[in-house]
Prior knowledge:
single chain, 10-stranded mixed beta sheet, disordered C terminus
Amino acid sequence: MGLLQSVHKGRRPMPPRILLYGTEGIGKSTFGARAPAPIFVPTEDGLGEIDCHHFPLADSIDQVIEDLAALHKEPHDYQSVVVDSLDWLERLIWDEVCAEYGVKSIEKVDGGYAKGYTHALTPWREVLSRLDALRLDRGMVVILIAHARVEKFEDPESAAYDRYSPRLHKHATALVTEWADAVLFATRRFRTETEEAGFNRTRTIAAPVGKDGGERILRTVGSPACVAKNRYGLPAELPLTWDALVAAMAQGVSAEGTRRDPA
Length: 263
């Protein structure tokens, strides 16, 4: 068979690869638990109050790899895999790299000069490769959960500004966000209000919109406020629920098909 005969035509729908990050207590793990038949690979101890299936808490990157390998080769009915969380997974990766080079700090690996963060990309790529195998061979949805941090972004076209991003080293952030089909920022909806501060001065404060500290939402498109993206034509903002995301993904795919249909 010639090489051109192996060319794929048209869309090939696949289970999504989702990176969900946000502040503590926003509902990231609960979101993952609402995915179809999920199994958690926990790297931090935070699932005690969530009704879900999960492996024992991983204390090494080898344990994470073993969990993913078991999901690939053993029979099961799970449809989604949730890694919770990436920032604690990164610590396990750093521990392995440090042990390999006989140092106590990732900054000291291979003589320093930030080489440790580059070496850490090798186990990161192995994890992503095994997640891809679960997606391709077992048809599993992949959800990666991370905490958020505020970073200063140096924009070459304007002044530097602060934005939310996953709490990972910049090399790992670049790798995982490029790999994911959707990078979603979980936050609360706020509005700004001006109030009197005394002595003829005013100040601007952020007030939550809705009950219980503010409506929980997903940001799906990158902006100066946060790192985000998607390949599904999602609206810029969605409710923080699995059902809302799936419905919006279906609408985005339908709209894409409509645009591509000949007149």
